[in-house]
Request: fold
Amino acid sequence: MSLAVPGATPRWSLFAWCVLPILSACNPTFNWRELRPEGSPLQALMPCKPEPATRPVPLDGRAPVELHMHSCDAGGLTFAVAWAELGDEARVSGALTGWRRASLAAVRLDPSRGDDPTTRWNAAVPGATQAQGLMAQGSDHQGRAVQVRAVHFARGAQVFQAAVYGQGMSDEVIATFFEGLKLP
Reply:
């Protein structure tokens, strides 16, 4: 293959050989950007442009609350950030427990494993009053192996989840995503 341009000098061809690989690197798999979901104090880093969605969900087994979610796919992984306003801090503990169980059920694992210490990892979110990490391996709706890494957290009567689902997770990508969470 030749990058020779008709009528161009050899210097131009050398320039093309040096610059084209750099320009092709300008389209990264993970294009990190800040997300500030409307109605929430949450700040997050997302590796792609998230799509918003809202739906009623009974997080704690009581009356449904509006769950606001932003999610996107990049590098073979699905990234999601969600939050809900419970209206009563007394509901927070039950909502976080219910959400952990739902996260396990989403990867076809027994939801009772939500209390299993083997599914926990140390997670911290600046500004959160509670935070608990979850990591597990299950399967997707087609029976393929899938991992989930999530953190469920709260401040006041608001509950949050940040999660990554996929087959292979890079420590660097996971760290960037979870370290980008803040409740200022």
